Amino acid sequence: MALHRIDLFVIGLYFVLLTVFGLLIRRTRGFEDFAVARRSVPTLMVFASLCGAYIGPGYSLGFTAKAYSVGFMLLPVWMCFSLQTCLVGIWLAPRLRRFPGAYTLGGVMMSAYGPVARQLTGLVSVGLCVGFAGVLARAGGVILSNAIGISLPVAVFLITGVGVIYALTGGLKSVVATEGIQFGVVLVSAGAVIAFAGRHITSYPSLDHSALTLTVAAWKSASAPELLGMMLLFLMGETLIPPYANRALAAASEGASRFGFILAGVFSVIWFTMMATAGVMAHTILDHVSQPDGVLIQLAQAVLPAGLLGLFLVALAAIVMSTQESLLNAASVCMTRDLMPTSLLDRKQLNVARVSTIFFAIAAAWLGLRAPGIIDGLLICYSIWAPTILPPLIWSLLGFRTSHLGGTLSIIGGGLASGSVLVFHIASSNPAIAILAGLSASLLGAIIGTLVQRLWRHA
Fold it and tell me: Tell me: the pLDDT tens digits for 101-129?
């Protein structure tokens, strides 16, 4: 990709300003500041940071590429994420604030199911966050590599390295602040792509016809089980993953948590519609697409003037960094609170979290050079998280009576079943099969564990 010197200047300036900003807000007064920003994040920052966390490569590059091929057909599927985020805001996220001593979901599970459940939750959370961060490292590396012509390994380590500055020095406070800023930059630059693309459309009736043709053809070729499976993945796959749960735990109040999630869910409807529109526009404007996941970038190249193109490209790379640093922060906090002795002094907990951040960043960069495609990697993470952690977590948050053995067996059963399905490629045609198998095993484990514990008590 040959960029104008103005674009290269904008990219370089953006990275410099981003690094300076991260250093300016680096002050962390203790582990609580690092982990949950002293539980003082207001509604608008909960909203902006959530949006900045989810509008990464999957929900921008991936969605635009899909819309380029299938029009608006998948828009109802993607709205399942919007519905899930709103429902979490209404019923679940505010309830996390009722656990004042919890820094992670492991802390919540500890209250409901005991120390073994906390450690299992911490182990799954760390693995999920590092896996997600690896997928994003590759996605951001590809964007930066194509933009400025550096090798993929250098781009991956640059993306990860700049993100570590925030996650390491400023903790969650720094992560939330930068996500909010970068969310605004990405929103403006993506809006500019659509606005300038509109000026290249010579006939809007032909655009409408193209959108209708793509959508109808895709609906006819899609099977009902496939669509239902995708809906299930988007409805459950990212529900209260550690970075999102951290926002709820860090919110200034139950109200800030509730409305932050609801606003983020409502905005996602707007964002998904924008990405679908960009994909349909690209189908009309572009003669050919060299890389399937590069539709949005190629559209930006075709329509944006010098300067704006550089801002758009660096904003995409930066939003990847925001999501990645959020994941690294969540992984290090889970490591410190769920997998290490809780008796450690505050300063030692902070040091463990910072060392863990560096270690996980190196692991994510290494995985980034070996990760599968964006969507494939995300679906694997979804298929593990949803059946392993969600059933016992939601059950406890809704206030139902819990059994320590039932919760523990629920986590183990869900993880083993979904993992086995993925390992043996049973879900290769429909990844939702792994979630369904895991949910069934999770429910069975909860029932068996609860019955055994009750019989043991009465024996």
Answer: 899 999 999 999 999 999 999 999 999 99
Domain edges within the chain: 5-371, 375-459
Task: Please give the structure tokens belonging to residue 140.
Answer: 């951001």
Distance (Å, whole) CA 187 – CA 178? 14
The residues, any chain, with a CB within 8 Å of residue 440's CB and separated by 6 or more, are: 417
Contact 126, 335 (CB under 8 A): yes
Identify residue 111 by its one-letter amino acid code: S
Give the closest residue to 118 by CA, choosing from 337, 399, 400, 391.
337
- By the 8 A CB rule, do 152 and 145 touch? yes
Instruction: Tell me how crowded residue 283 is: count the other CB atoms within 10 A of its CB.
Output: 20
pLDDT digits (tens, 9 = 90+) for 330-361: 999 999 999 998 788 898 999 999 999 999 99
Distance CA 333, CA 31 (A): 9
- The pLDDT assigned to 322 comes to 78
Residues 224, 227, 230: CA angle, nearest 5 degrees: 150
Topology classification of domain 5-371:
Sodium/glucose cotransporter (1.20.1730)
| pLDDT digit string, tens, across residues 129-149 | 998 898 888 888 878 787 777
